[in-house]
Amino acid sequence: MPTATADSAVAERRCDVKLPFMIPDPMTGEEEEPPEMVLVEISPPNEQGYCSFGASLWDKKRRVEQAKKYGKLVIAEVNENLIRTGGDNFVAINQTLAVDLTGQIASEGIGHRFLAAAGGQIPFVFGALLSKGGRSIITLPSTATTRDGVISRIMATLPPGTPVTIQRNCADYIVTEYGIASLRGKTIRQRVLELLGIAHPDFRAELEKEAKRLYWA
Question: pLDDT tens across 174-208, in order?
Fold first, then answer.
């Protein structure tokens, strides 16, 4: 379902948002029952006739096996542009809505407003971080235009109710039109300085003031 359609349907309470548990319990193997139908993307077959699940291999394969186990319908759609995965140096590039100064990444909504599901962002990020030499890159414009004017997408803190799609522990590279912030292995203060450097210049002074108050006053 397109994001705009999903946003309207949720706002009008014509549908709900299912938040799948992305990783099964490794100790008990417990898993949730799949929906009635599972739709997955696959790559075109190679010379040997094998298709790839792409960047979210570990998640898609588990969901297909789970659906078959419960006798659910599985539909595989061939995407000519889907990358084939299986190796080192995997790079994942995703977009987001906002990032706070500690590296929390919000891609599903701002505040209590639902805008999009997490989709494949979580598997892509984990896939990159688990790949030898892999990198996760999150991109966003430095600002957004709202009914109240222009705001910074690099925020001192995320608004109350905002879902955190990617935890700050998993933040790697954040990119805006003003540069690249490298967050992996950095302290809170180092992360703040990195992110201030890629915020829009019009908002840096206020963000720095808030950072000093919140994180090292």
Answer: 999 999 999 999 999 999 999 999 999 999 999 99
Query: Are the CB atoms for 98 and 158 separated by under 8 Å?
Result: yes
Give the whole-angstrom CA distance, residue 148 versus residue 155: 16
Residue pLDDT, tens place only, 130-173: 878 889 999 999 999 999 899 999 999 999 999 999 999 999 99
Give the Cα separation of 176 and 173 in Å (integer): 10
Q: Is the pTM of this model over 0.70?
A: no
- CB hemisphere CA count around 210 (13 angstroms): 15
Residue 51 · residue 44 · CB < 8 Å: yes
Q: Which two tokens stand for residue 114?
A: 């639902």
What is the per-residue DSSP string for the chain?
A: --HHHHHHHHHTTSS-------S--TTT---PPP-SEEEEEEPPP-TTS----GGGHHHHHHHHHHHHHTT-EEEEEE-TTPPP--SSS-EEEEE-SEEETT--EE-SEETTEE----TTHHHHHHHHHHSTT-EEEEE--SEEEETTEEEESEESSPPTT---SB-GGG--EEEETTEEEE-TT--HHHHHHHHHTTS-HHHHHHHHHHHHHHH--
- Alpha carbon of 171 to those of 103, 155, 192: distances in Å? 6, 15, 13
